């Protein structure tokens, strides 16, 4: 048996393949958009994964440390460490700011990590180059997306840090790359004012007669020293042991330490349900519109392709071809077109489009499978419209017109 | 003849579609979550590591002096400014004596008067003695009454007492004068040691309370660095270890040593405190309060299995490394020993020398991860 569809495609395969390519680019954009949406959600999850924590202990009644600001005393971890079920604890600070390197500056989330060894909660779980921080001050591990290289000297507030390690996919929920620095430095960076502000504050304090009393030498110095210290962190990361459940330990800390505690699933809910909800919905809406538009364009293309062959179809009808054969011809062509379009779309989305986006684009295999089925279903439906047009054609048109 | 063009077309279509299909399969398997994770491998090597501790500190001095008056008063003059080198005993300034000089003069006059009174008492005594002697002789010759002789003896007694009182008065006034002079000297602000003036807190004319510092000076020979080490990074810190000091204003390294580790740690900041001294005091003198980085060298450890700290992962509550054995990944829990500042960590237990372990990866690994070994991950995509 001769494949009519195959024959027809062979007849003008160049046109067919190029139509497929064009369709592919459109599908590629749709797949990329799905990838951007997934990437947005994945950025939020990456932030949680990378912290390595089972529980987040934050200031009472805040959604910290990512969705709201939270500050708690930096010695609270000692009490939390003593709670049953707690295996490891670590202080952490987060501050999104511009990190300067030479002439340029990069927007980054500066993360202060507790002194210790690799594996401490909050530390980057894997590196792509260099080493982890070994000194308690002035060393940094940066995400490759910052563009920093090993040995670079970067400036955070007034201190210079040397980049000793590089990691990747360490991003804030907003997609800003992370820079890890020792906690003590980060605490300083977070609360340290610029030199002018410090000078002005000193002057204000010394002008205040309550603090600058001649009868009490040393009082002014004591007051100024107390103004320039910072004993706060944003959160305490907790890893729990294998015996206790996360909810159990969280409840104990909530009850006895009077702090707010989030488990992994609650944190995910905050990040995805609250922090990135609007932007995710925005992208999601765009994805829906793009999918509808793509479906409409696919339908139009197949319809026009069929109408272009209306004379040949009339001839087929004239020579007594069955309607089933004609319908098969159109549907097979539509599906072939859809398949070529999908393949081209997947390739362009993965190789050409995804890498050029500044933020992470996650192309899930399941999304691709879903996309493939969607493309085929759209092709089948649109070919049905074309089939209806083809079957209505009058065989007389083959000779007339 | 008819079939040939068709074959060419089929061939052409196949030429276009087949690479497309091949590329599609490649893309599906080699990118995205299904792709193998690019990693770099290293072998556990045996090497000796020299652990070191890193801390930051501020330049400080062991001996500093605050010089001020012991009583409240007004500054009369100051001879020195900040930065001046002074010698021990040098007069740096003085307080306003107010009426002290006048009181000394009054006391000096009182002294003269007391001396005159002493002379007078002496003269009276001499006269009384002569008189007593004369009347005693006259009584012997029976030419005077016993009553008059008794009177003269009594007068002699009085004169002796008066002289003694005059002596005491002179001594009292001498002592009072000495006390005033001592007070006068005490108004001078004197350098305690050879040193450097670091602060001049008030200028002449300023009223100062007792004990308030007018001038501050240091002994530059006693320069040291107040260093803070994080408690988790302070294992092995003890006195007499060699140290390298980098001043924030200079990038050159200065050799030094740990003078002592403070018995009191900082409970609030969770830091250990130590004092580090320069082997040779740098010239020019570093500013007091300047930030320094101090690296303390610990003795070199014997060679043993060593891994880079980037290889250490935390999986399922255990610290360990991903090891490649017969082409398969498995997680080996390790016990870690000392580490150095270059990122090498000794392994006490868990992996042997020569084992292949994963150092860098582009994402977190699991036992089922497929890996793809590369030389460097910089520029690699997942």
Task: Please outline the helices and strands.
The complex is a heterodimer of chains A (401) and B (382).
Chain A: H1 4-11, H2 13-51, E1 55-58, E2 72-73, H3 76-81, E3 86-101, E4 104-113, E5 129-130, E6 139-143, E7 153-156, E8 159-167, E9 178-182, H4 183-191, H5 195-207, H6 219-227, E10 232-233, E11 235-240, H7 246-257, E12 260-263, H8 264-275, H9 277-308, H10 310-318, H11 323-353, H12 365-391
Parallel strand pairs in A: 4-9, 6-8
Antiparallel strand pairs in A: 1-11, 1-12, 2-10, 3-4, 3-11, 5-8, 6-9, 7-8
Helix pairs in contact in A: 1-11, 2-8, 2-9, 2-11, 9-12, 11-12
Chain B: H1 3-30, E1 37-43, E2 45-47, E3 52-61, E4 64-67, E5 73-78, E6 85-86, E7 91-95, H2 100-140, H3 146-186, E8 188-190, E9 195-200, E10 207-208, E11 215-218, E12 223-230, E13 242-247, E14 253-261, E15 271-278, E16 291-297, E17 304-308, E18 313-315, E19 318-325, E20 328-333, E21 335-339, E22 344-349, E23 356-361, E24 371-373
Parallel strand pairs in B: 1-24
Antiparallel strand pairs in B: 1-23, 2-17, 3-12, 3-16, 4-11, 5-7, 5-10, 6-9, 7-8, 9-11, 12-15, 13-14, 13-16, 14-15, 17-22, 18-19, 19-20, 21-22
Helix pairs in contact in B: 2-3
Model description:
The complex is a heterodimer of chains A (401) and B (382). Chain A starts with a helix and ends in a 10-residue tail after the last helix. The mean pLDDT of chain A is 86. In chain A, strands 1, 3, 4, 5, 6, 7, 8, 9, 11 and 12 form a 10-stranded mixed sheet that branches. A two-stranded antiparallel ribbon of chain A has the order 2-10. Chain A is of the alpha+beta class and 401 residues long. Chain A has helices at residues 4-11, 13-51, 76-81, 183-191, 195-207, 219-227, 246-257, 264-275, 277-308, 310-318, 323-353, 365-391, and strands at 55-58, 72-73, 86-101, 104-113, 129-130, 139-143, 153-156, 159-167, 178-182, 232-233, 235-240, 260-263. In chain B, the strands form 6 sheets. In chain B, strands 3-12-15-14-13-16 form a 6-stranded antiparallel barrel. A 4-stranded antiparallel sheet of chain B has the order 2-17-22-21, with no helix packed on it. Chain B has a 4-stranded antiparallel sheet with strand order 4-11-9-6, with no helix packed on it. Chain B has helices at residues 3-30, 100-140, 146-186; strands at residues 37-43, 45-47, 52-61, 64-67, 73-78, 85-86, 91-95, 188-190, 195-200, 207-208, 215-218, 223-230, 242-247, 253-261, 271-278, 291-297, 304-308, 313-315, 318-325, 328-333, 335-339, 344-349, 356-361, 371-373. Classes of the chains: A alpha+beta (401), B alpha+beta (382). At the A-B interface, helix 2, strand 5, strand 8 and helix 11 of A face helix 1, strand 3 and strand 23 of B.
């Amino acid at each position: 048996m001769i494949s009519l569809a195959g024959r027809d495609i062979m007849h003008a395969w160049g046109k067919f393949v190029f139509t497929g390519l064009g369709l592919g680019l459109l599908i590629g954009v749709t797949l990329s958009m799905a990838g951007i949406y997934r990437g947005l959600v994945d950025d939020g999850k990456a932030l949680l994964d990378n912290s390595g924590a089972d529980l987040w202990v934050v200031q009472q009644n805040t959604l910290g440390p990512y969705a709201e600001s939270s500050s708690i005393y930096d010695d609270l971890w000692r009490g939390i460490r003593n709670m049953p079920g707690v295996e490891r604890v670590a202080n952490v600070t987060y501050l999104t700011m511009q990190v300067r390197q030479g002439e340029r500056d990069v927007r980054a989330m500066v993360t202060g990590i507790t002194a210790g060894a690799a594996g401490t909660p909050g530390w980057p779980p894997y590196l792509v180059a260099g080493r982890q921080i070994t000194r308690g001050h002035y060393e940094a591990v940066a995400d490759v997306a910052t563009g920093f290289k090993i040995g670079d000297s970067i400036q955070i507030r007034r201190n210079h840090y040397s980049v000793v390690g590089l990691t990747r996919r360490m991003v804030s929920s907003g997609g800003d790359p992370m820079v890890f620095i020792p906690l003590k430095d980060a605490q300083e960076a977070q609360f340290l004012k610029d030199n002018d502000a410090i000078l002005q504050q000193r002057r204000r304090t010394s002008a205040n007669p309550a603090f600058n009393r001649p009868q009490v030498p040393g009082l002014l110095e004591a007051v100024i020293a107390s103004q320039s210290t910072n004993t706060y962190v944003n959160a305490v990361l907790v890893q729990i042991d294998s015996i206790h459940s996360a909810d159990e330990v969280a409840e104990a800390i909530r009850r006895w330490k009077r702090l707010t505690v989030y488990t992994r699933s609650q944190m995910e809910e905050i990040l995805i349900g609250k922090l990135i909800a609007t932007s995710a919905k925005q992208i999601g809406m765009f994805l829906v519109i793009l999918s509808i538009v793509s479906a409409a364009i696919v339908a139009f293309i197949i319809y026009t392709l069929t109408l272009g062959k209306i004379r040949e179809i009339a001839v087929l009808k004239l020579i007594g071809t069955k309607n089933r054969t004609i319908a098969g011809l159109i549907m097979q062509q539509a599906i072939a077109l859809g398949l070529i379009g999908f393949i081209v779309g997947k390739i362009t989305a993965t190789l050409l489009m995804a890498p050029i986006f500044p933020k992470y684009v996650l192309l899930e295999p399941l999304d691709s499978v879903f996309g493939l089925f969607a493309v085929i279903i759209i092709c089948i439906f649109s070919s049905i419209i074309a089939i209806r047009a083809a079957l209505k054609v009058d065989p007389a048109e083959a000779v007339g017109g | 003849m008819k079939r040939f063009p068709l074959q060419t077309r089929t061939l052409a279509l196949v030429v276009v579609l087949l690479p497309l299909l091949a590329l599609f399969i490649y893309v599906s398997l080699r990118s995205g979550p299904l792709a193998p994770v690019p990693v770099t491998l290293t072998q556990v090597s045996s090497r000796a590591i020299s652990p070191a501790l890193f801390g930051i500190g501020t330049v400080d001095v062991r001996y500093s002096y605050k010089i001020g008056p012991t009583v409240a008063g007004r500054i009369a003059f100051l001879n020195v400014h900040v930065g001046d080198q002074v010698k021990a005993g040098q007069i740096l300034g003085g307080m306003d004596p107010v009426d002290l000089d006048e009181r000394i003069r009054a006391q000096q006059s009182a002294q003269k008067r007391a001396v005159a009174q002493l002379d007078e008492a002496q003269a009276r005594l001499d006269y009384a003695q002569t008189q007593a002697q004369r009347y005693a002789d006259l009584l012997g010759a029976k030419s005077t009454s016993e009553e008059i002789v008794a009177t003269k003896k009594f007068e002699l007694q009085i004169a002796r007492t008066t002289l003694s009182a005059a002596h005491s008065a002179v001594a009292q006034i001498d002592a009072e004068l000495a006390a005033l002079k001592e007070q006068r000297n005490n108004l001078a602000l004197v350098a305690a040691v050879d040193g450097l003036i670091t602060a001049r807190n008030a200028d002449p004319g300023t009223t100062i309370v007792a004990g308030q510092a007018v001038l501050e000076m240091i002994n530059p020979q006693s320069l040291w660095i107040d260093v803070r080490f994080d408690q988790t990074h302070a294992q092995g810190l003890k006195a007499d270890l060699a140290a390298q000091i980098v001043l924030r204003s200079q990038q050159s390294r200065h050799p030094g040593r740990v003078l002592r580790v403070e018995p009191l740690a900082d409970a609030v900041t969770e830091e250990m405190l130590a004092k580090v001294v320069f082997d040779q005091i740098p010239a020019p003198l570093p500013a007091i309060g300047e930030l320094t980085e101090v690296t303390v060298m610990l003795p070199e450890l014997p060679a043993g299995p060593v891994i880079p700290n980037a290889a250490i992962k935390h999986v399922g509550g255990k610290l360990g490394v991903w090891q490649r054995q017969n082409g398969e990944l498995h997680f080996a829990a390790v016990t870690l020993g000392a580490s150095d500042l270059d990122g090498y960590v000794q392994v006490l237990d868990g992996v042997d020398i020569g084992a292949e372990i994963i150092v860098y990866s582009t994402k977190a690994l699991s036992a089922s991860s497929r890996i793809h070994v590369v030389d460097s991950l910089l520029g690699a995509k997942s």
